[in-house]
DNA sequence: AGTCACAGCCAC
DNA sequence: AAACGTGGCTGTGACT
């Protein structure tokens, strides 16, 4: 247990004075062990249940050390024990293994977490903690084992501190994100079925009595497209069949992609493109989707914090990170409540400016519309905003190098562009890069290039360079978002004794908070403050400005 | 009856 | 105008 009571080294983070290892096993056993550091608290393991955890949370507010928040916290939460601070051994292990260069280990830990069958969604048949047979950790360690793992991780963090000074903050923020994800899955997003029905009916026609029947408007579009192709039997959902029919109808296309279809002036194009747009909505976010994912007026997706290599969140079901704009109007606050919707504008290029310490680009972040500012600064034409946006995104994604706007960017903001080029070259050479707080990109696997012709190997190397080029930005933006979430989550806990205040949605650079109407102003303030904290802690004193628009609305769609 | 790759498109 | 980064999800069609 050596070192178990050491403080987590967290620059600017909050530090609990008491650390408690919590181990709960699926067979009904459970124990809590307060780790030695401060006096007056028993250090021997003792049986624990949710009530006791909740009591300890009230009296001591420890930093709970859990083997795997995703597996253990849903049951605790259902039983009424809400934790405010924790150290998640599982997600921390993935971060540490990555930083230590153990790519296989890191990938295995992440894959195990992403595949774990947690189910905060299932209602507990009884208030017991331990009936969740779906999610026993592979080996449920006792509290002493969890404490030992914690001590080991703290020692490894300490060893990495000089090389990756932000990693302690990232560990804390990632752990908090894991708590937030479980809570968000449990509470769900308010989903108004009537509004959803109205949107679907307007676009598709009324809900058919059978799932195997196309809604009327969809059917009409399908018939119109088929008639224009002079082939009433064509299966529009079959790429093979559709491509054949298109070519027979005289359209020299090589794919059935929308952008290729739109190049041709043919009566089938418009109904076909519209059909596919609506067919996708019907299949992915229509009535069947709602039947599966919306219960009691709320959408309960399953989140996997850190499930993406870059540290972004993934989802395991429900498609929460791809809710189409067309149906967002169905996210409506229930009576007496409002949604506080906030998103960081142009987060990634602002992060780039900070990482590169590019003075010109940092100055430009003072403006709300960064792309317009860059167009003015680099091209002298604010109206070239769209061109500049494409050029900057290309620079961050590794896309087309030939545009005049990109050349202008390189002349005017050399430090920013050089950072991207360096990251790309590192990846092309097979090296790793890391985010601002120290999340490490997986190294290219050693045999990735073996046995390939030079040309193929070169293409693969460049592809890996595009990955690392983007990683430094995307992963650093994810760092920022994790600190935002961790900070906001604690602020909302302070609001909660005055009423309902919950994080209900998070997507890369935007959050939605649901609050009782009287708390809306306070929640808006909390979101803005959390954004400022994230910018200060993650991007330091670079002077970069990250605007976080936050507004209280009734519906998710009510925003600019 | 499952599994898989693919094409295509949704989100950031 | 498209391509380029990270994903999820759907239906098809080929496979076991």
SSE blueprint and pairings:
Layout: E1 19-24, E2 30-35, E3 46-47, H1 50-60, E4 63-66, H2 69-78, E5 85-88, H3 89-99, H4 103-115, H5 143-160, H6 167-187, E6 189-190, H7 193-204, H8 216-228, H9 239-248, H10 258-261, H11 269-285, H12 287-293, E7 294-295, E8 298-299, E9 302-304, E10 314-317, E11 337-344, H13 347-356, H14 359-364, H15 370-379, H16 385-397, H17 404-412, H18 414-428, H19 454-495, E12 501-506, E13 510-516, H20 520-539, E14 548-553
Parallel strand pairs: 1-4, 4-5
Antiparallel strand pairs: 1-2, 2-3, 6-8, 7-8, 9-10, 11-13, 11-14, 12-13
Helix pairs in contact: 2-6, 3-4, 3-5, 3-6, 6-19, 8-11, 11-12, 13-18, 13-19, 15-16, 15-17, 16-17, 17-18, 18-19, 19-20
The protein binds a DNA duplex (12 and 16 nucleotides) through helix 9, helix 11, strand 10, helix 16 and helix 19.
What features would you highlight for this structure?
disordered N terminus; 20 helices; DNA-binding; globular; five-stranded mixed beta sheet; 560 residues; single chain
How would you characterize the overall build of this protein?
The chain is of the alpha+beta class and 560 residues long. The protein has 20 helices and 14 strands. It has helices spanning 50-60, 69-78, 89-99, 103-115, 143-160, 167-187, 193-204, 216-228, 239-248, 258-261, 269-285, 287-293, 347-356, 359-364, 370-379, 385-397, 404-412, 414-428, 454-495, 520-539; strands spanning 19-24, 30-35, 46-47, 63-66, 85-88, 189-190, 294-295, 298-299, 302-304, 314-317, 337-344, 501-506, 510-516, 548-553. The strands form 4 sheets. The protein has a 5-stranded mixed beta sheet. Strands 12-13-11-14 form a 4-stranded antiparallel beta sheet. Strand 4 (63-66), helix 2 (69-78) and strand 5 form a beta-alpha-beta unit. The chain is globular. The chain binds a DNA duplex (12 and 16 nucleotides) through helix 9, helix 11, strand 10, helix 16 and helix 19.
């Amino acid at each position: 247990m050596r070192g178990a009571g050491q403080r987590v080294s967290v620059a600017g983070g909050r530090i609990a004075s008491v650390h408690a290892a919590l181990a709960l096993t699926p067979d009904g056993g459970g124990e809590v062990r307060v780790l030695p550091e401060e006096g007056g608290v028993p250090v021997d393991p003792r049986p624990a249940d949710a009530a006791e955890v909740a009591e300890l949370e009230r009296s001591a507010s420890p930093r709970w050390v859990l083997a795997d928040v995703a597996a253990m916290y849903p049951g605790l939460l259902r039983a009424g024990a809400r934790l405010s601070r924790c150290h998640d051994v599982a997600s921390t292990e993935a971060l540490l293994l990555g930083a230590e260069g153990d790519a296989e280990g890191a990938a295995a830990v992440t894959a195990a977490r992403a595949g774990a069958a947690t189910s905060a969604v299932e209602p507990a048949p009884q208030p017991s903690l331990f009936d969740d047979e779906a999610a026993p950790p592979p080996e449920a360690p006792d509290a002493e084992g969890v404490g030992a793992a914690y001590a080991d991780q703290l020692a490894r963090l300490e060893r990495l501190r000089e090389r990756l000074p932000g990693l302690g903050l990232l560990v804390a923020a990632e752990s908090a994100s894991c708590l937030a994800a479980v809570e968000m899955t449990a509470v769900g997003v308010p989903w108004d079925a009537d509004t959803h029905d109205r949107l679907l009916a307007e676009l598709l026609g009324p809900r058919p009595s059978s799932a195997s029947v196309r809604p009327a408007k969809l059917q009409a579009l399908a018939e119109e497209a088929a008639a224009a192709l002079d082939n009433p039997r064509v299966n529009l959902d079959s790429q093979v069949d559709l491509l054949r029919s298109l070519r027979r109808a005289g359209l020299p296309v090589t794919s059935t992609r929308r952008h290729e279809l739109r190049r041709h002036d043919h009566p089938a194009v418009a109904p076909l493109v519209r059909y596919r747009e609506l067919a996708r909505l019907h299949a992915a976010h229509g009535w069947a989707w709602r039947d599966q994912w919306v219960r009691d007026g709320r959408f309960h997706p399953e989140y996997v914090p850190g499930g993406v290599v870059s540290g972004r969140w993934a989802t395991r079901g429900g498609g929460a990170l791809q809710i189409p704009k067309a149906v967002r109007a169905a996210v409506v606050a229930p009576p007496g409540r409002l949604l506080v919707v906030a998103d960081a504008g142009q987060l990634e290029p602002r992060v780039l400016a900070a990482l590169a310490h590019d003075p010109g680009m940092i100055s430009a972040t003072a403006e709300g519309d960064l792309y317009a500012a860059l167009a003015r600064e680099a091209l002298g034409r604010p109206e070239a905003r769209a061109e500049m946006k494409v050029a900057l995104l290309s620079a961050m994604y590794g896309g087309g190098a030939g545009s005049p706007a990109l050349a202008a960017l390189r002349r005017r903001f050399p430090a920013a562009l050089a950072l991207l080029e360096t990251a790309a070259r590192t990846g092309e050479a097979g090296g790793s890069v890391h985010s601002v707080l120290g999340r490490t990109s997986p190294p290219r696997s050693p045999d990735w290039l073996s046995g390939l012709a030079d040309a193929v190997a070169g293409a693969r190397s460049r592809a890996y360079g595009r990955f690392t080029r983007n990683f430094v930005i995307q992963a650093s933006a994810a760092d920022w978002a994790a600190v935002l979430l961790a900070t906001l989550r604690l602020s909302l806990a302070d609001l909660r004794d005055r009423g309902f205040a919950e994080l209900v949605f998070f997507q890369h650079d935007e959050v939605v908070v649901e609050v009782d109407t009287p708390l809306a102003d306070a929640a808006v303030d909390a979101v803005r403050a959390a954004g400022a904290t994230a910018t200060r802690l993650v991007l330091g004193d670079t002077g970069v400005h990250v605007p976080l628009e936050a507004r209280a609305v009734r519906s998710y769609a009510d925003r600019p």
